[in-house]
Specification:
Blueprint lengths: L6 H6 L1 H11 L1 H29 L4 E8 L2 H10 L6 H7 L4 E7 L2 H14 L3 E7 L12 E8 L5 E10 H15 L7 H29 L22 E3 L1
Parallel strand pairs: 2-5
Antiparallel strand pairs: 1-2, 3-4, 3-6, 4-5
Helix pairs in contact: 2-4, 7-8
The structure holds ligand 0O2.
The site of ligand 0O2 has 15 residues, from helix 4, strand 4 and helix 7.
Amino acid sequence: MREDITEEQFWQLPQVKNLRAGLQEKTFCEKYERACRIVAAHLQRMDSEVCTELGYHRIDCVKWRVKTPESCILKLKRKGKELTMENALARLNDIAGVRVVCEFLDDMYGICRQIAQDGIFRVIKQKDYVKQPKSSGYQSLHLVIGVPFENGEEVKAEIQFRTKAMDFWSDIEHRFVYKNRRKYEKEIEIELRKCAKAIYKIDKQMMHIRDHVAGFGPGGYEVAEFSVKSGRDRILESQN
Ligand code: 0O2
């Protein structure tokens, strides 16, 4: 990728204009929107089914979005990939992005396990940024799945599972740091890591309160210490 051009010139490159046009096509967007709707509907169904048994909703809310063409292009560029439609389809797992916000940490894992077991979607990849947060302090459980369509086609989607507290942290960090090109002082990064650590502690306490009040046995969630590795991110990744 040429580094000697301005941002304005970049968006005028024929390759970039072609890809942008492809990603803007109505049929393309509709396909990914449909995948998001299918996943969101399945999650809501799963939630209703276990709600009576548990006595509360495991899912607080489900949000979804189709990644904008500009964001797709910048992500491919960031990954150092050639800006083609083939690469967008093969390399980007989150064109269809679904976010599941839960109140409790162990419910995130429960829903994730259920998705893997019920076999409606093909689990392609799982990344656990809760057990091993990113160096920024980012915590979330990511699941990349294949969503089957009736015509035999499979569309990839990424589900991000977070607690309400993790979602609060991520939204703020996303707005002020992750997507902000300004270079921040080290203190802000340290402050955010401290907040992420505090959030992990609160999430564990909330599970404890729920179990105590409802008379549940321990939820079986293995409580680990919150630790991030500075510099390189530690990623637990399982691929099938
Ligand atoms: P946006 O604008 O949120 O969509 P993969 O190709 O699947 O192996 P990928 O997508 O390159 O992996 O990276 P990863 O680590 O799985 O992260 C994907 C998404 O997680 C990001 O998407 C963010 O939504 C979120 N994320 C990752 N790291 C951070 C972080 O430090 N802070 C915050 N707030 N969010 C993070 P995009 O496309 O980068 O951005």
